Amino acid sequence: MLLCNADRVVMSVAVVPLAAQHGWSSSFVGIVQSSFLWGYVFSSMVGGALADRYGGKKVMAGAAALWSLATFLTPWAASQSATMLLAVRVLFGIAEGVAFPTMSTFLPKWFPTHERATAVGLSMGGFHLGNVVSFLATPIIMSHIGLAGTFAFFASLGYLWLSVWLLNVESDPIDSRTISKSELQLILAGRSKSKVKGSKSPSLREVFSKMEMWAIIVANVINNWVRMADQQN
């Protein structure tokens, strides 16, 4: 999750020199920044279902491969055309949109109930740490290897992480060759205790009737607006 957000932040920093280099207007910068969300909204709604069907390992691996590719292609796309750039950023959003729902289905399989909140907290902490690390590191890296080199650097980190993920992680601990029997029994016992009989997914109407849902929406709108306004200043 750290790398997921770090790759996202690179564009937030690089968009300033990119805009100066290509003569983008403020309104187009806003379109470029929001294009990530066009793909993100769609894939975040189906990411969990994909992970349930194909397994968290495969879905997260595919997502990381795609968002790393999109990261690498971003400066090239910017030099080609506005349409190409927006297409690459939408692809980036589609790839990153599955990360949160995939982790939401992945973590319960690997952690018993009493450890689950800690696992989620560490995952979210890594996500926000990526924000901090990337904001600090991107300008420094950019000053040494340039715009294209910076995007290539973060893309290469994605593929390095991907190789480790594919070699060492399984969607379900039952399929793992490295987990101990005692640890597996602990996870499975915690998993069985947390099952709820007769539970079903809420409808969209029920979801949007909750104040908590609207609080999250408003908070994200304000957060994104502040980021965009800050970049304009």
From TrEMBL:
Keywords: Membrane, Transmembrane, Transmembrane helix. Residues 1-233 form the Major facilitator superfamily (MFS) profile domain. It is a multi-pass membrane protein. GO terms for cellular component: membrane; plastid. GO terms for molecular function: phosphate transmembrane transporter activity. The chain crosses the membrane at residues 27-47, 59-78, 84-107, 119-141, 147-167. Belongs to the major facilitator superfamily. Sodium/anion cotransporter (TC 2.A.1.14) family. This is Major facilitator superfamily (MFS) profile domain-containing protein.
